């Protein structure tokens, strides 16, 4: 545990604005970028790592699954630790641990070490991610500044996955797959230096209540079972016995977790955090939108490399318009309008614009033009998601008691992580099934090798478009959830809810 040096200089008084907050935001953004990059950067490097370390086709998925299980399963625990221990301490510890795990991954000499390093990355990411977002929540309490800060953070959170594909391609093609791990070390070093020098957590922002151990065990095992169930479904199918067993176990454990949280005095996840209509709607809309977004990354990556025959670097470059759209939507549209219109009037149109972009992509074929169809579709998807995700993120973390900032932030990351696991497994399974059916229906006796190869590629494209149709419907569902559940009037929508009484005492809230 690093020393609690947050008091080496006077911490900001409750309600006071930290004069260093914008410089701190830069280092929080670097840490967030590192975590989000890691979700996709290793995917590009996986084929090279498989050859170098001799991973079997059956085992290679553990490079992804080990990270997802640790990250998704421990997020709520990590958020509670940030509240209890202090977000500054959790932030620095998460950065140090993530850098060490990345160094181990880059130096891995066999499959076991690589899998272990990925799991360790997930453990420290589960501590780092909620600490970063909750620091943002407690540092930026003035409405106009808060909108700008969340715009920047939301742009990074949304675009980081696509940037990871580009960076992963560059590092793998021109250096070595191990650099997709080593690249995290300078990111972490810069963020650690900035955190040590600048972050002084506001007074009174910690939650020193005893740790809810039954809640920790139930939430962690339940989320691990859920994430593994979806990962298993992608590999073995939805009817696999172990897949079904994982889903049943997840349901039992998570229902038990809710029952425990409703009864214990100091719950891991206070139900008031998720039962608020606006905040719960933001969690649901975000998680569902991520299902479609992760599925899209998967399909377009394969489409551009297998069908268009782009190199890894060119594939990454092709995603940059989506990144530009996300940054524009988040920082130039959402952050400017958050104080003028209700969040619902940004989220619903944002998801609908992204859905229009997804609808365009359902038209891809063997010879689709990138500039005429894929480029405008990516711009629309990025613009829409950037506009929608920033107010969703602010609703999800705004208005909570300062002592609950970490767990509220962890719920944002949990919805995204579980959504990503569902999206990868569900949409990939749908696409693979459509491809198989397409090829089986058109295979003829006596087909030549060239004709069979062409049919296989056409089947792949058919599967991609079927998956993208589902992603289109998923974004429409996100828009519907936002339209029905979210009724807040502006940045202070949660203020009254968070100011309710707990155990007969007034509850302080974060100013907006």
From TrEMBL:
Transmembrane region(s): 24-46, 61-78, 90-113, 119-140, 152-175, 181-199, 211-230, 242-260, 281-304, 310-333, 345-364, 370-388, 467-486
A Pfam family hit: MFS_1
Membrane topology: Multi-pass membrane protein
Matching CDD domains: MFS_MMR_MDR_like
Span of domain Major facilitator superfamily (MFS) profile: 24-491
The organism's place on the tree of life at top rank: Bacteria
Location in the cell: Cell membrane
Keyword DNA damage on entry: no
InterPro entries reported for this sequence: EmrB-like, MFS, MFS_dom, MFS_trans_sf, Sugar_transporter_CS
rRNA-binding listed as a keyword: no
Protein name, as recorded: MFS transporter
